[in-house]
Amino acid sequence: MTTRATRGTRRRTVVALAVILAVLSAFILRLIDIQVVQADDHVADSLGKLSSSTTIPGARGDIVDAEGTVLASDAFVYDAQLDPKLIHQYETETDPRKKPELSWDQASEKIAGIVGMTGDEVRGIVAAALEKNPNSRYAKLKNGLSTEQYLQLRDLRLAYLHNASRAIRVYPDGAVAGNLVGFLNGAGEPQYGIERMDQSCLAAKNGSTTYRRGQGGVRVPGSERTVPAVDGGTVRLTIDADLNWYLQQMIAEEAQRQGARAGSVTVVEVKTGKIRAAAEYPSVDPNDVDTVPQEFWRSHVFSDAYEPGSTFKAITAATVIDQGKATPLSHVTAPAHMVFPNGAVINDAAPHPVYEYTLAGAMIDSSNVSLSMFGSRVDPGTREEYLRSFGVGSPTAVDFHSEAAGILEDSAKWDNQSLYTTTFGQHFTVTPVQIAGAYQAIANDGRKIDLSLVESCTDADGTVHEAAAPESRRIIKSETAADVRRMLENVAVQSSNARAVKVPGYRIGMKTGTGEKPDGHGGYKKGVYFTNMVGIAPIEDPQYVVVVTLDEPTKMRSSAATAVAFQQAVTQVMKTYRVPPSSKPMGELLPKFN
């Protein structure tokens, strides 16, 4: 017979069993969650606590010139550090069997001789660290040691001396093409030039080594897993470093001789559009950029746009000839000062009588009035189209970092004055490389080839990625280009600069230009100019275009200031590329006057 007490005991037993089963079920569910559902996460977490990882740095790729001369590369240096506490322990050790062969006094003298310090200085570093913290395990000895110094320190076999390696960027040729190459900042980030422009090729990918640690932090054998680093690729440029070096020295001397604030020489290969030199003064040394003001850290050949002046009279001549509006022997009656029907006032650089100028003669004497009269034979819209086809108003295909496009206003907005000044290189701006590109088309029988600065990127595994082939397009007839080249040769032999620019053994064509500099208030600075000279050599078989610029020369303010530098630059280019001397004599001179 079941009593009330029995029923109560049974009920309590059932409740207790239920509670036990509930708790047990909760433990089982939690165990399943830990060991099954979240097993991967917990394993990864535990392995993470038992694992260590070290980074394997990849080397940034090299930048080399057309012949493989290294202009930028990675190098390893070593930072030496000491363990003050271990040194103290060795020095206070009483058991001679546990003491190192060299006493601290002896070792510090050897260390000092290797790192370029005195023994007292080395010992002072350790003493200062111990005074600050008797348990100090670190004291910086010296950073940036060479591999030779590292090896000498390593051979001392001192347990308390450690050397940590790190990569640094070095530029073996210093300032040679430094404005093109660019540099990295302290964090290793590319700032200017090719270093920034071709980051995708040059950048390395770091690797890593991961391993498990056992008791006491001991590495577990066989647990290592390595992801190798991938070094950056090599960027090959089109420039010739030796030629660039010579031209940099030369333009620096000439700029200083003329009292100019800056200067440049740009060399372009006619048949390929490749930039073979871009020499600048002041030039930046990427190893120490602070040696020049920050404004000269970039390449002014690409980033500075200015009014070219008379060098673009050749483009006006090409336009009117190509449009059938004139020939080299067409003529105009031109005074030195003229008021045009729309009220525009144009002056030549120097007073002269009224001349019956041929187009060739107007180029030789660089007559603004005459070029205005010839240029106005073609409507403004067509002239704008020709300027744009020659590259005005657009950056080059190089797409250099911080490259300027220059300014060319829509011809519909040209006012009465600019309607004429655009015929002789005013009211629009260009860079030195854009001038070089325009003359490349004249030299190349009217076909304009996109300029290039990079030849290829070669991956660390040797795979070569050639730069895309440059576009080539006809912008003027070949007969037009030939006529303009003949006029440029006449400028070289009949202008006031003829003797100064003569290159023995070679026929050349050239044109000078003097650009006024804006004052920031809608006018021009008085007596301040940007002078330039551009030429083609040899003129009978064009191989190279050379552009020389001087920014604000003070000893001689006309374009003649560039004559000596131009002559030396063309001469050196002919020597560097072993261009055969001209074998054909010049034809009959074109007349200045009708």
From TrEMBL:
Residue ranges occupied by any Penicillin-binding protein dimerisation domain in the UniProt entry: 56-187
Compartment(s) of residence: Membrane
One Pfam family of this chain: Transpeptidase
Penicillin-binding protein transpeptidase domain: residues covered: 263-565
Listed Gene3D superfamilies: 3.30.450.330, DD-peptidase/beta-lactamase superfamily, Penicillin-binding protein 2a (Domain 2)
Keywords, comma-separated and alphabetical: Cell cycle, Cell division, Membrane
GO biological process terms held by the UniProt record: cell division
Superkingdom, natural source: Bacteria
Chief location bin: membrane
Record has ATP-binding as a keyword: no
Keyword Protease recorded: no
Protein family per UniProt: Belongs to the transpeptidase family.
Stated name of the protein: Cell division protein FtsI
Protein encoded by which gene: ftsI
